[in-house]
Write a structure and sequence with these properties.
about 210 residues; mainly alpha; 10 helices; cell membrane
Length: about 210
């Protein structure tokens, strides 16, 4: 058993490191600098995600950042799942990519809030689950006009959606996907602690609100 444990742990470690490094690629920073739009960390909220990239006035860069941030988590999960034929390996790689986006080694572990990467991961892991999460975000955003609150509600409900007994939609989701959904939801709440504080104070800006 000990002879098998060593290679297994090494494989797990390599999958996690590979996922983390892929997730650590700061596309928001790379794209804005390459396009001559400056360092996205020096404007707005200082975040590296698509919402803050949009504050440069470049919708094209914001859309590209959104797609790439969502894609890197999905790619990490899909590659690992394909190579090893294992939902668990896919979830480990995906979870590590998510962690990399939030705490990228290249930026002193100061990364994004993970919403785009979260949706990319969930869609890749189980597309019906991803659609439920996305629909929740859209419904909340339309009803209440708070992007952060929409993300928090979608993240909180996704692990519950994953447990629904709906075989026609591939649910309940495999256990590794449920664990990954819980892991990423907890991290999203941690990274949104400032938004939560503003929401409680009624100071969080709404979608489309203009600055005074």
């Amino acid at each position: 058993m000990q002879d098998l444990a060593g290679p297994a742990l090494l494989t797990l470690g390599l999958v996690a490191i590979g996922g983390y490094l892929l997730g650590s690629i700061p596309f928001g920073v790379i794209l804005t600098r390459a396009a001559g739009a400056g360092d996205v960390r020096s404007i707005g909220s200082g975040n590296i995600g698509a919402t803050n990239v949009l504050r440069t006035g470049r919708k094209d860069l914001a859309i590209a950042t959104l797609i790439l941030d969502a894609g890197k988590g999905a790619v990490a999960l899909l590659i690992a799942r394909h190579l090893f034929g294992s939902e668990a390996m896919g979830a480990i790689a995906g979870g590590a990519a998510f962690l990399g986006h939030l705490f990228p080694v290249w930026l002193g572990f100061k990364g994004g809030k993970g919403v785009a990467t979260f949706f990319g991961l969930i869609l890749a892991a189980c597309w019906p689950l991803g659609l439920l999460a996305a629909a929740t975000w859209l419904l909340m955003a339309f009803a209440l006009r708070y992007s952060s609150l929409s993300a928090l509600v979608a993240a909180a409900l996704t692990p519950l959606y994953a447990l629904l007994p709906l075989p026609a939609l591939g649910l309940p989701a495999p256990s590794p996907v449920v664990v990954m959904a819980i892991f990423t939801a907890v991290l999203i709440f941690i990274r949104h602690h400032e938004n939560i504080g503003r929401l409680l104070k009624g100071a969080e800006p709404k979608i489309g609100a203009k600055k005074a």
